[in-house]
Design brief:
This protein has four helices and eight strands. The chain is of the alpha+beta class. The protein has a single domain (13-136), classed as Aspartate Aminotransferase, domain 1, CATH 3.90.1150.200. It has a six-stranded antiparallel beta sheet. Strands 3-4 form a two-stranded antiparallel ribbon. Strand 5 and strand 6 (81-84) form a beta hairpin. Helix 2 packs across helix 4. The longest helix has 18 residues, at 23-40. It holds the Pfam family DUF1801. This is DUF1801 domain-containing protein. Residues 25-130 form the YdhG-like domain.
């Protein structure tokens, strides 16, 4: 089986954020880092080369594939912020409708800049995602 590339690394989160471009993305990354640390009660850690994660859990699929991943996380990519906070909770759709300008993928929330969204709603989505993860993957 192939080695999982997204795993904790010793890279310093502050050093990584300091190198993020453009400046608005760097500022947004600092804001998200502070918010997700508050929500999770966990210190940030780098997962792979570009994901800032909070906490961890172990998963095992029916296929036998297993690994570890951060409970919540984000990546400040050049084009947009990618937040790993989406769940299969049907109630999340109502919150996303109130969030502001965004796109979604299977488990990813894409935001161009935090100024486009309601931060209180984003924090609510993050808290709900953490509760979902804690219920599905108890610590």
């Amino acid at each position: 089986m192939a080695e999982i590339k997204t795993k904790p690394t010793p890279v310093d989160v502050s050093t990584f954020i300091d190198a993020v471009e453009p400046a608005v993305r760097r500022d947004d990354a600092e804001t998200l880092c502070t918010m997700l640390e508050r929500v999770t009660g966990e210190k940030p850690a780098m997962w792979g080369p570009s994901i800032i994660g909070f906490g961890s859990y172990h998963y095992l699929y029916e296929s036998g594939h297993e690994g570890d991943m951060c409970r919540l996380g984000f990546s400040p990519r050049k084009a947009e912020l990618v937040l790993y906070v989406l769940t299969d909770d049907p109630g999340q759709a109502d919150k996303l409708a109130r969030l502001g300008k965004h796109k979604t993928g299977k488990s990813c929330l894409y935001i161009k800049k935090l100024a486009d969204v309601d931060m209180a709603v984003l924090e609510e989505i993050s808290r709900d995602a953490l509760a979902h993860m804690n219920a599905k993957y108890p610590q």
